[in-house]
Amino acid sequence: MPTPDFNLLITLDVLLAEGSVAAAARRLGLSPSAMSRALARLRQTTGDPLLVRAGRGLVPTPRALELRQRVSQLVDDVQEVLRPQVELDPKQLARTFTVRTGEGFVETFGPNLIARVSSEAPGVQLRFVPKPDKDSGPLRDASVDLETGVVSKTMGPEIRTQGLFRDRFIGVVRTGHKLSQSKITAARYAAAQHIAISRRGLNRGPVDEALEPLGLERNIVTMVAGFSTALALARKSDLIATVPELNTEGLRAGMHSFPLPFPPPEVTVSLLWHPRMDADPAHRWLRKSVREVCTEQLTAPAD
């Protein structure tokens, strides 16, 4: 079957509206002969005369009357699809965005982000969902709109990323822990009891790699999958949780945090999204909101 010429829809719409070949030609900027040829093609394509002579004018056939409203709607829909997007008005936006991120990010940046979104776009709802892995599938299948995290080698090659901030690892213990009461050396840190944090069950991570040149190895006694679980354990025990500083600010409240006594590993926390959302005005507004909330919060003077 040959590919239909969709330009004929516009021609048919104008012909049916004007009821005259000459008037339709003037409206479309065509010559009367070109419009007559277009009408002939329409008659051949639809298998119906569409407009027939009645005295000095043309009148639509029953098939033309049947098509008139449908064709007009189709032309309007096509023009709407191809029309450049107007500038977004967030206050008119009604949408739910699903953001996949860690608990630490929600604890630290969630309140300010929610406040900003509620102020600028009261019809928008943010739905935060946990991030059990680094699989790009949820972004790809559109079950997730936006994600935050550290870019990994396993991420889909098409996923777009934009850095939000740099974060460094620190040590965290309960208040009153012996490491909170005296100078911490790399040797004392390594010899203490540690919580390893790995979603994939790995015993070694960036902290262990940073200790290796010093000839030291952490005394790991347990392993968990996330920062919040590690901090909950450290709060109730003599274990050390080594976590990113900025991304766990809210989770560490009431605990003793200390800089690592060796060059700390650093990570870049990024925004991640699928390229099909690149040009979507609402999605662009959300990405901008997340970036600005993180920047404003991290650069605000301390109380």
Textual characterization of the structure:
The protein has helices spanning 7-18, 21-28, 32-46, 62-82, 103-120, 137-140, 186-191, 206-211, 227-235, 281-299, and strands at 51-54, 57-60, 95-100, 124-129, 146-150, 160-173, 193-197, 219-224, 240-244, 256-259, 266-273. It folds into 3 domains: 7-82, Winged helix-like DNA-binding domain superfamily/Winged helix DNA-binding domain (Arc Repressor Mutant, subunit A), CATH 1.10.10.10; 92-163 and 272-299, Periplasmic binding protein-like II (D-Maltodextrin-Binding Protein, domain 2), CATH 3.40.190; 167-267, D-Maltodextrin-Binding Protein, domain 2. With 303 residues, the chain is an alpha/beta fold. Strand 7, helix 8 and strand 8 (219-224) form a beta-alpha-beta unit. 39% of the residues lie in helices and 22% in strands. The N and C termini lie far apart (72 Å).
